[in-house]
Amino acid sequence: MPRCHPFVLVLCLLPWRAVLAEPAAAEAPVELDALQRQVVGKGCARKLLGKKEHPFAEAQVTCDAFLSFALVQASLEGKAPPDVRERLKALLEDALGRGRAPFRNTGSTQVAGQELPRSVLYRGFLLLMLAGQERAGFGDEASRTLFDALAAQTVEAFSVQSLLPSFGTTIWPCDNALAASGLLLHGRLRDSEASRVTGERLAAHLTKLLEQPGGFPTQVDAKGRVLDKTPRGSTHAWTAAFLAMSGHPAARTFADVLLRDFCERVPLFPAAAACREWPRGVNRAADSASGPIVGGYGQGTTALAIAATRASEELGAWHTDLRNTAVLGGIQKQLSQPGRFPLETSLYLWATGLRPW
Predict the structure, then answer these.
(1) Distance between CA 153 and CA 110 in Å, rounded?
(2) Boundaries of every domain in the chain
(3) Rounded to whole angstroms, how far apart are CA atoms 35 and 200?
(4) Which residues are 297's β-sheet partners?
(5) Secondary structure element (H or E) that encloses residue 204, with its range
(6) pLDDT reported for residue 26
(7) Which of 26, 160, 309, 311 is the most buried (most CB within 10 A)?
(8) Gyration radius from the chain CA atoms
(9) Which of 62, 202, 68, 176 lies closest to 119 in space, CA to CA?
(10) Which ranges of 41-111 would DSSP assign to H, the alpha helix?
(11) What is the pTM of this model?
(12) pLDDT digit string, tens, across residues 227-239
């Protein structure tokens, strides 16, 4: 399954149904204790919504990462639980343990005494989890040693190849956005010029791909040749959201293109918005990366756009309208059952609270 999308997972975020054109109700509060227990305890099922027709191999590390991000965001706002440091540490340990399993086909390397996958998706998640701990003031000698070593190896990898694969040799440019933000944050938080320069170069490369005549490609090979040129709403939203975590201005560039080319206010539903997976005029069916497509709108793209519109305060109206769509679609069901929907709940908490670190 293509990797920019822990979004097949977000097909559960918007369980679309017929709704009346009425203001969205308030979102249900989330029981963080129950969510934490599920994620680091029994774990996150490799099936979305428990359905075998929606497998998701990387569910565990995705749960670890998104809940970690949400807790860091809450900590920066003074809203985190008192034991947030311990929660973040437990999530990191889980990502370093069972979270590695799905990435074995990318090969591995020693990083600060740990055997870690080479996958740019895994590296990106881990860099951002470590950056979050440092940004929130919870870094210690062990986490900083790992953060520095992982950043250095990632910088070295990008000195050899402009974009890195997510699985095997499969390169999705959007997944490289995680590494870009992770390196930019390492450069800022750990005063590393090498990380900062590499992160800036990578963000510029992604922007150059966005601005080329064919638009932002879905997949390229190791030499940068485009293998899948059709732009997708989900890849734009994914890239915008992760670049926004480091506050890079390219996040707004990707978000603007997403909103211009893929998103619109939904007819007959006041104060609601939705986004397409495929460009207007391209009528392709849903696939494993898009999640369901209803009336031309992609559920995965729409959910990810909630995070993407955190790239700038000027996009606040879009962000609100997209959240209204989620509420009208029934997001309360997932938020009120974090033990049953840990992956979906963690992602939504991150998307709605995302802020630059």
Answers:
(1) 9
(2) 8-12+25-230+330-353
(3) 35
(4) 294
(5) helix 193-211
(6) 54
(7) 309
(8) 19
(9) 176
(10) 59-76, 84-96
(11) 0.91
(12) 999 999 999 999 9
